[in-house]
């Protein structure tokens, strides 16, 4: 799967699938704003993954908040369809 990556300073990385990224406006404000996406966060050191089903705006907000929190510096966040 192709994805785009966002990273703030030395924090965790956020990956967004290309399909969602191309239609980001629709997922944030348009006809797909209530559509569910899969939010996965993975501890890179332990390999433990946790998945949740959220709306795109909620998943992106949670990923940004956690990536800026120092406790999640060893994590990767994936937002996929």
Concise structural overview:
The chain is α+β, with helices and mostly antiparallel strands. The chain is built from 3 helices and 5 strands; from the N terminus they run ββααββαβ.
Give a verbal description of the structure.
This protein has 81 residues and is α+β, with helices and mostly antiparallel strands. It is built from 3 helices and 5 strands. It has helices at residues 18-22, 24-28, 56-68; strands spanning 3-7, 13-17, 36-43, 49-55, 75-80. Strands 1-2-5-3-4 form a 5-stranded mixed sheet. The longest helix is centred in the C-terminal third of the chain and has 13 residues, at 56-68. The chain is elongated, with a radius of gyration of 12 Å.
Q: What is the tally of beta strands?
A: 5
Mean pLDDT, nearest integer? 89
Given helix and strand content, the structural type is alpha+beta
Strand order of the largest sheet: 1-2-5-3-4
Note the gap between the termini.
11 Å
Low-confidence stretches: none
Quote the beta fraction. 35-45%
Tags for this model:
single chain, 81 residues, 28% helix, alpha+beta, 5-stranded mixed β-sheet
């Amino acid at each position: 799967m192709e994805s785009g990556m966002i990273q703030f300073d030395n924090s965790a990385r956020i990956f967004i699938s290309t399909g969602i990224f191309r239609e980001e406006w629709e997922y944030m404000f348009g006809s797909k704003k209530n559509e569910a996406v899969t939010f996965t966060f993975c501890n890179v050191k332990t390999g433990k993954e946790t998945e949740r089903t959220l709306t795109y705006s909620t998943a992106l907000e949670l990923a940004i908040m956690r990536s800026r929190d120092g406790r999640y510096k060893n994590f990767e966040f994936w937002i996929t369809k």
